[in-house]
User: Fold this.
Amino acid sequence: MEFLSTVMPIILCSLTSVLVIILIVLAVKLINTIDKINLIADDVQKKVESLNGFFSVIDLVTDKISIISDRLVDVVSSIFTKLFSRKKERKDDYDE
Assistant:
């Protein structure tokens, strides 16, 4: 029993020291990994910002095309409406 009471604290102390060293090494590796991830994220952010102008031009072009197509559809629908309303008026004139 005396042997365990003298040896056990030594074993616990040495295992605790090994655990602390392992945790320090893992923390340093984790910090290095996070730094690399931050560099990659910054690079991706710069590339995305460089494409913002391109996407704004595409957005502007699609908006203009949409406006033109809406106007074209309005003109075509008004032409068809006029054609069909004239036919109805003519039919009403003949009926009277």
Observations:
- The mean pLDDT is 89.
